[in-house]
Amino acid sequence: MKINKILAVAVAICATGGVWADHHEGGHESSIKMIDSSTFGIDSSEIQSIREKMQAAVDGNFVAGNIILVGNSDGVGVLETVGTQGPDQTTPMDDQTIFRIYSMTKPIVSVATMSMVEDGLIAIEDPVSKYIPEFANMVIIDEETGETTAAQNEMTVQHLLTHESGLIYGIFDPESSLGRQYFQAGSLRFDITALELAKNLAALPLRFEPGTKWNYSRSTDVLGAVIEVAAGKSLDVILKERIFDPLGMDETTFYVDQAKASRIANPIHGDMGDPLDVMPMLSGGGGLHSTTEDYVRFATMLLNGGEYNGARIIDQSTLDRMTQKFMGDNVNRDAFFFGPVGDWGLGFHLQPIPGADNEGPFNFGWQGVGGTVFIVDPVNDFFMIYMAQVRGGPRGAEMDLTSSQRAVYEAMLD
């Protein structure tokens, strides 16, 4: 059985476009070191089943290609890629394909924020108005009547980290009066800076009292602007200094250099921005592009309690704080994606692992609207990354960012 598992890994490597690069393009050693999939309790038949589901997603015209990876601090036991980088393309996806990771930007910005907390540059209890004065004296809107009343609670950095700020995402709520105000305030513009956007949003009412409800929102975009002010540096520089350089994530950027254009994944459904088109906006909520190989570095760091290859990004105690339940029983869950299940930490989802209840233990991570997701499970000692590039399109794919998590757990715990 062990020999079969090793052979299965070897076949998978060959089937996905050749041997994986030994070195990262920027000169670093690759973060991907293949190990036996039995490390994760996954055998060759289970790998084949996962691959068949990935192939079905391609054959069914749900995605042009997809990648799934399971690893830990010892190495990567499962690495499967199926399909191409985009429609009408022949280049297969691989660990160096560049994806728009959208909201998988949020955990990176949240970790950078908490590293600044460790350095005393900011505190999660700080009012947002300390850094962006326009957020003082906010008002709450009654969306049925349009009337506004003065907010009783002050929005804090913690509220931005936990999506309890009272802000919304206009793009996910386009028919509401507040959603329309967000569009008018430039919430979809990239020709303004994150700080300019934050100031525009500060001029609008909040949907609810900060700290009383969870609502997915532009909170992390505002957080990006806040830490720019706190650090006196632009967000790309903050992330480079605090995360990307120490981890060797030299493929993770807000915009992509023209020389790397041939490596960009493209959607088979929906429209996505051009990563080559450099704009003023550095979106902390969804602006980064990355590769599977680069994101392995970030995920491994989290699984290792804040450290990767001798580079400590945050302390274990800080990460423990980030993965505590912050919604609790007093926060309204009407808009929470997972209903009564799970919770939210300081920048991560918290979902019970199989067999656990809502008291945990949890895995943590987050996803991107473009078809990507990562989870970190310290109890079962693994992380998973799934990458595809799609915006909308038909539903019912056998493999996507949700079913990939289920497929890995079923294989691992079977």
From TrEMBL:
Keywords: Hydrolase, Signal. The keyword Hydrolase applies. Residues 1-21 form the signal peptide. Residues 74-400 form the Beta-lactamase-related domain. GO terms for molecular function: hydrolase activity. InterPro entries: Beta-lactam-related, Beta-lactam/transpept-like, Diverse_Enzym_Activities. It holds the Pfam family Beta-lactamase. This is Serine hydrolase. It comes from SAR86 cluster bacterium.
